[in-house]
Amino acid sequence: MTKILSQKPKFIVKKKFVWYLSQKTAARLLLEKTLSTNYELVKEIQRMCESPHPQRSGVGTLAHSLNKLLVQNGHSVYYRGNKE
């Protein structure tokens, strides 16, 4: 988990319950902390779709499309954006 998160991916997509983390408390807590600290749920940034800023509108459209498709299948989508 540390190796994956250290690459700072722009998007992280996960199901609400990740079965392989249920027995790995340290990895699960690291993922939860990273998501809450460094990422935003896509539904919170969907306003970017309406943004007049061209540099952000593409990201917002992508986030909206990903969110719609993946949430229908029980996933959550997180976006890193400019958070460090």
Q: Can you offer a commentary on this structure?
A:
The protein is α+β, with helices and mostly antiparallel strands. It has one domain (2-79). 48% of the residues lie in helices and 14% in strands. The protein has four helices and three strands. Strands 1-3-2 form a three-stranded antiparallel sheet, with helices on both faces. The chain is globular. The model is unreliable at 44-50 (pLDDT under 50).
Termini separation: 18 Å
User: How helical, in percent, are the residues?
Assistant: 40-55%
Secondary-structure element series: HEHEHHE
Strand runs, count: 3
Order of strands, widest sheet: 1-3-2
Oligomer: single chain
How many structural domains can be distinguished in the coordinates? 1
SSE layout and pairings?
Blueprint: H1 2-5, E1 11-15, H2 25-38, E2 40-41, H3 42-45, H4 54-71, E3 75-79
Antiparallel strand pairs: 1-3, 2-3
List keywords for this structure.
84 residues; three-stranded antiparallel β-sheet; 14% strand; 4 helices; alpha+beta; 48% helix
Brief write-up:
The chain is an alpha+beta fold and 84 residues long.
